[in-house]
Design brief:
Function: Antitoxin component of a type II toxin-antitoxin (TA) system.
CATH architecture of the domain at 4-53: 3-Layer(aba) Sandwich
Oligomer: single chain
CATH class of the domain at 4-53: Alpha Beta
Strand order of the largest sheet: 1-2-3
Strand content: 15-25%
CATH topology of the domain at 4-53: YefM-like fold
Organism: Silvimonas terrae
Number of helices: 4
Family: Belongs to the phD/YefM antitoxin family.
Protein name: Antitoxin
Shape: elongated
CATH superfamily of the domain at 4-53: YefM-like domain
Pfam family, one: PhdYeFM_antitox
Radius of gyration: 24 Å
Number of strands: 3
Order of helices and strands: EHHEEHH
């Protein structure tokens, strides 16, 4: 993923260049040298907006069964309470 940085002036002079660059990654647009906006492809925007928000959704993701994950079993030791 490439990150491109353009000034507002460069953006205004060649919007086509900015749109092409956004296909390969975000385009940071600066005002007076400071980041002010980000141009994304619509696909990248959708990925950002539709991120999984909870553990149930994450566990339901396609391909999750292909991930090897064997957590160790918890060992719970029950001891009588000590009162002094």
């Amino acid at each position: 993923m490439a990150i491109t940085t353009l000034s507002s002036r460069e953006l205004n002079q060649d919007i086509g260049h900015a749109k092409k660059a956004a296909r390969n990654g975000p385009v940071f647009i600066t005002d007076r040298g400071k980041p002010a906006h980000v141009l994304l492809s619509f696909e990248d925007y959708q990925k950002l907006v539709h991120q999984r928000r909870n553990i149930a959704d994450a566990l339901a993701m396609p391909g999750i069964a292909d991930i090897d994950f064997e957590p160790p079993r918890a060992e719970i030791i029950i001891r009588p309470a000590e009162f002094e």
